[in-house]
Amino acid sequence: MRTHYNTDLSIANINDTVSLCGWVNSYRDHGGIIFIDLRDRSGLIQLVCDPKDSEEVHKIAETVRNEFVLIAKGRVRARGEGLRNAKLKTGEIEVVLSELVIENESLTPPFEIGDESVNEELRLKYRFLDLRNSKLYENFALRSKACIAARNSLSKMGFLEVETPILTKATPEGARDYLVPSRVHQGEFYALPQSPQLFKQLLMCAGFDRYFQIAKCFRDEDLRADRQPEFTQIDVEMSFCTQEDVIRVAEGFLKDIFNACGKEIQTPFKVMSYKDAMEKYGSDKPDLRFKLEFIDVLDIFARSNNEIFASIAKDSKKNRIKALRVPKGDLLFSKRQMQGFEDFVRKFGAQGLAFIQVKEDGLKGPLLKFFTQSDLDELVKRCGLEVGDVVFFGAGAKKTVLDYMGRFRVFLANEMKLIDENVLEFLWVVDFPMFEEDEDGKFSAMHHPFTMPKNIDEENIEDISSVAYDVVLNGVELGGGSVRIHKKDIQQKVFKLLNINESEQREKFGFLLDALSYAAPPHAGIAIGLDRLIMLLSKASSIREVIAFPKTQRAQCLMTAAPASVSVEQLRELGIKLREKLQ
Q1: Exposed, middle or buried: residue 457 (CB in 10 Å: 0-12, 13-18, 19+)?
Q2: What whole-number distance in Å separates Cα of residue 269 and Cα of residue 264?
Q3: Whose CA is closest to 40, among 71, 76, 74?
Q4: Is the dihedral of CA 504, 443, 529, 254 positive or negative?
Q5: Which residue from 204, 141, 202, 144 is spatially nearest to 168, judged by alpha carbons?
Q6: What's the confidence (pLDDT) of residue 225?
Q7: Which residues in the chain land under pLDDT 50?
Q8: How distant, in Å, are the alpha carbons of 158, 195, 204, 217, 433 from that of 210?
Q9: Residue-level pLDDT at 376
Q10: Order of strands across the sheet with 390-397?
């Protein structure tokens, strides 16, 4: 039907006769001469219909409206002087119509294509219209390039692409599983995989040596901007390797992906321990595009005559007192603003936010009265304070302080416009704890229970570390991985520490334990979140902008109205009877 896509045409095609197809982006009647902006996947081009050239074509053009599908034929000519449009790739030319077919008419759209002020719920309800937006199309063109580059890069490195099951067995991996009832085996359920973790380990046991997959994953968890109930990851596993081997492979295919998408990145990436990341930045995915770092001042506050601070400082294992120096902050923020920052940190559990200003005539602030002059001098020296600076202090339970000070660090960077949006700052965070404690005092695996511990026989469970690693880009966790447990006895010890008894081990992980019993090789892997990666590459505000048909934050598809009720007959076939909805 077409000879060219719109933006294939240029001044080199002047006087050529062309056939074009697409949607009406806009329509204008200027004194009888009709101008139509035709849109296809490549972009826009202007069509011109003059009644002097063809009254028949002009009559058809008069009935055209926005979003009609057209098939147009005509001659390419140069636009007149002063009529060129520098904003369009085809702004130097137009097509004078000789034939026009309205292939399909459209209802009046509920919103103008490309209008970003439109309510997102309306856009998602009419996602098939929203996707006509050229900006969104570019996101998916970028995603396609990234997937092709990942496949090509990993294939060159000797990795074999293998698909793993979508219908599998429910296993405890951190989030809730999506369950699928079986019609053949009534009362029993499949689960949708949270990741291909166990299957890729089994492929290593099978001797496949190097595996990859662009895999769909499913997690029934609360959503936010960078989460969806179904998402995609670039999944990689390899045998007879170390953490460093996996890092080298991951950097290799990430570099190839970014190159394919027009971005040059430098390898190797920086490396930082989990402990340093938390203690210096309050996050296991720190944004290193700006320099603000925490300084530990617990020992100085331990000598203060303030009972609250002194009490916190007595327990250096459970508590933290951190200083955050903001260079020239006293010149940027008013005292009222700085007092207002306390409202921000209180939302994340802070009891308060003390600060000291550095003036020409010395330090100022209500904290000064609690310290000796020598301790204040030590504070100035340790924090590197200079005239014009302000230093903020967070004090309390370790987890709470690191969390709210980490958030406050990013908040200040945005307030001070310290972040260069064009910079790509990669980081490996390594040496994670093996287990983490929840609010109920129970321990769970920080990554997953198949991660290799470094010191499994450590008496205190909190002191056991793991061979795990995350790759971070601009404060966003792109993905993570670990060296896996390849010995049955170690795996059983980890299960025991997680209070998974032998019966439950057999029921849920019997196939894995069997595989480990038949000489599993040392192996490791990594999974990169493809949606997050494309979100960062395209500078989108959320992963919903890089997923063709996403769900809302309530895990609903507004376009198809999923999830939805099913018929009584379907439920009967599955042997399921629904309880009344809980109020």
Answers
A1: exposed
A2: 13
A3: 71
A4: negative
A5: 202
A6: 63
A7: 583
A8: 7, 17, 8, 20, 27
A9: 96
A10: 294-296, 319-326, 390-397, 354-359, 362-364
